[in-house]
Write a structure and sequence with these properties.
It is a single chain. It is globular and about 50 Å long. The protein is built from 8 helices and 7 strands; from the N terminus they run H-H-E-H-E-E-H-E-H-E-H-H-E-E-H. By secondary structure, the chain is α+β, with helices and mostly antiparallel strands.
Amino acid sequence: MKSFRLLILLCLCMFASCSNAQNKKNVEYDWDTKMKDMGLIDVCFWEPSIQYYLVYKTGDNFTGKSLYNAKLTKAWLHPRAAKMLIRAQDVLKKERPDLSLLIYDAARPMEVQRKMSEWAKRTNNGYYVADPAKGGGLHNYGMAVDVTLVDGNGEWLPMGTPFDFFSPEAHTDQEDDLLKRRRISPSEYKNRKFLRRIMEEAGFKSIASEWWHFNACSREEAREKYLLIER
């Protein structure tokens, strides 16, 4: 009888343990708190005139799925990158008070990077997504930002392609040819050049494959000086 009672008690303990483990698994990780604790900055709190639309909280991205949970709600950046972006906004406002920067993506958890990389490789788009096995990209350190320009009515300026458009039409090193072949319009060409000049004046570096992406430092420097965004 005692053995039977012990067996029942053991089963109940195992069930409770499994239930607790499942509940913990179902609780969404609080990335906002994690990034704040890491010393990252909510850049739109520092400079409210900068707008943001976190594309990876929606299905409006290259995966077609929401990749950020309900507890990643802000555009976080390393303080160094945040100061550079605020500088870019200042430069922009002096030249075009009617325009603003709009953030598509900022600091990105490494676990999200892994999901993006897996999807990109399955669709033969691995070239466009930094490989987590090689340390990921600068988004994973809070040292890269994806941006566009938006007018006073909230309309995004035309750039020739949408965000996350994996095609030569999004490349910055082919813009003269794209314009010549009428793959992008003169106004789209001008908008890209203007965005790039504003960001580069603030210290950012553009990349060849994405007109919206800007780095605040090199990958080598990030890996040496800064923390990966991990749980």
